Amino acid sequence: MAYRVMIVDDSRSMRAFVRRVMDLSGFEVDSCLNAANGAEALALLNEQAVDIILTDINMPEMNGEDFVRRMAEREELRSIPVVVVSTDGTQNRIRRLLDLGAKGYVVKPFSPEALRAELERVLEVENG
Amino acid sequence: MAETQTTEALSAAAADVLETMFFSPVMGEATPGASCSEPVLMARLKFSGGRSGSFTIRVSARAAATIAANFLGEETDDPEPGQVRDVVCEMANMICGSVLSRLDREAHFDLQHPELVETCGEPSLGSVCSLFEIEGGQVVLCLQLDSAA
Questions:
Q1: Which pTM value belongs to this model?
Q2: B64 interfaces chain A, CB cutoff of 8 Å
Q3: Are B94 and A109 in contact (CB under 8 A)?
Q4: Min Cα–Cα distance to chain A from B35, Å
Q5: Minimal CA separation from B133 to chain A, in Å
Q6: Cα–Cα nearest to A66, from A86, A42, A47, A43
Q7: How confident is the model over B20-74, as pLDDT tens digits?
Q8: Which of A14, A66, A101, B27 has minimal Cβ neighbours within 10 Å of its Cβ?
Q9: Yes or no, beta carbons of B20 and A110 under 8 Å apart
Q10: In sequence order, which residues have a C-beta less than 8 Å from that of residue A95 and are 6 or more positions away?
């Protein structure tokens, strides 16, 4: 099954890299939307549906924590699983993002296999 | 925090990040010296939280171009200067985050956005540095921790 994916990161290079690693891992992508921050992502989600979202934390305008919080607050969006992709691997941060509503967390650096495993785990849980 | 512990965290984080995310394995330790004699790119970021301080990366321009090409993929053999700078900043962010997580997994850190530094400066007083070779040249990493309150 191929999935509609959104990548939220202020670094264009990082967005391209995440997309490339998904391809390398064998994770099937049907379509991929890009957003430079949480506000841009929310605006895109008003117009287009996705199956899963990968987001960075440190971004200008609306950071990843605020984005995850807003997603959880909006009934029409809270069923879309959000996976945080961050350099911050501290337990406090991971717990906080999961408490806010993120469904998965991948710490950079990550291998293609690790990214795919986390995306599939989250999608399996969400889709039963 | 012991200097040895910081040096080990710097080396381990750099090796992990460079190999996994930039497909650029560390080839060995470098000798300190004339690294400013060739064109370099430097990026610095500040962090706060469990500990505050700054992290600096200095990489030879040739090595930076190689790293950027690896990171961006096969279709980009000769990345544009803007892409190379973007990738060096991304690398600084990733290595710094990885170092801090290794030094204290329970703490909370806020990393500011990395900024490019125009001049080839020397490490700040009190910095702990790690130097090594990768394909294309030398990489220098320095972590400066502010005194604990």
A1: 0.86
A2: no
A3: yes
A4: 27
A5: 20
A6: A42
A7: 999 888 887 777 665 567 788 999 999 998 889 999 999 999 999 999 999 988 6
A8: B27
A9: yes
A10: none
